[in-house]
Amino acid sequence: MRISSNTFQMQWLNAVRQQQEALVGIQRQINTGLRVSTAVDDPVGAAQVVLLKQGMDRLDNFATNSETARRRLGLEENALNQVTDTLSRVRELTIQAGGGTLPPESIKAIAIEVRALFDNLMAAANSQDGEGRYLFSGNRVQSKSFELIGGSVIYNGDDGLRSQRIAENRTIQEADPGSKVFSAIRDGNGTFAVDTSASNTGTAYFSSATLVDPGAWVQDTYTIGFPTTDTYAIADGSGAVVSFGPLGPGDSITFNGVSITLEGVPAAGDTFVVRPSRNQDLFSSVLDLADSLEAFSGNPVDRAQLNSGLNSALMNMDQALANISNTRSQVGARLNIIDGQRDANEATGLQLAEALSNVRDVDYAEALSTIEQQLFSLEAAQKTFARTRTSSLFNII
Length: 397
Known about the structure:
Blueprint: H1 5-32, H2 43-97, H3 104-125, E1 146-149, E2 152-155, E3 163-167, E4 170-173, H4 178-183, E5 192-196, E6 205-211, E7 222-225, E8 231-235, E9 241-246, E10 252-255, E11 258-263, E12 271-276, H5 282-295, H6 300-360, H7 364-390, H8 393-396
């Protein structure tokens, strides 16, 4: 079989061209810093690069979601702090108004401040997130959370819970609906409440109402009546008498696991109602307090009504403060979760970045060593090609 000189030359040219292409490829990697730029460079590596970059993109989205949730939870926490401070001040004023010594003018001055504090509560409950969305409206973020209409506060939101995805398998609630924070609050002591009849003509009022034996409490509506000024009788919802006995100022009435202390002297026919606690928004509690303060005229009967109203308000404020405190604790727990997940995501991001670098980026030491080898091989091939191109059989004979 005869092989022409031209065949040898073509083989050498192909070898030189391949070495030149390899040299250009190594130089491009050094210039760009990337070992894998396209699938042609390394099909398997290119596929890994795509997967790793997708993972890093997801982490970036989780980071954005985490910051959004953190910002809104921070705003909610600030609003709840304002509510706590405002309710604490309302409670202080309620205690200040009690005691039976302040004149009507002072009581009405307290009522004015309570009304102003009510406005502060409404402002905090209608807080926004800086993007025009209401924090406490559930999923109806474009609707103002609470409005005062006809003397009553109306909730315009819903019970929806908004969440952000902060990891592959974790979401975080970013806000609480106002129905939970401000409305779903049990009045009284959380188990039962005491209502004073507006038609009472005596000076009796309740000073405390406590649950002393939860196991003995039978949920029903009870009426405490006074056949005489020094006796009482308690009837359940069906009218059956469950307890009766003598009564003196400061005595406690105990029945079915509850204890109610009465001060003053009731008039025959006066009544108090003991009923199961029900949900009452904190705004109504504050408005009821303001109404009680404004209705005070200074006579002993009015003062008894006021004292009962003040004691009801104190219990309602305590329930509202407890609910706000519980919500604040949940917000703080969510913020801690976000911080912990952010640290975990950052650690995962570093691992992905390192893996991406190992697959995609150039090892400069290896690349420089390879380029030296390629240059040496190319130079040798070019010299060999130059010698063989000018060679002939006559040079050998």
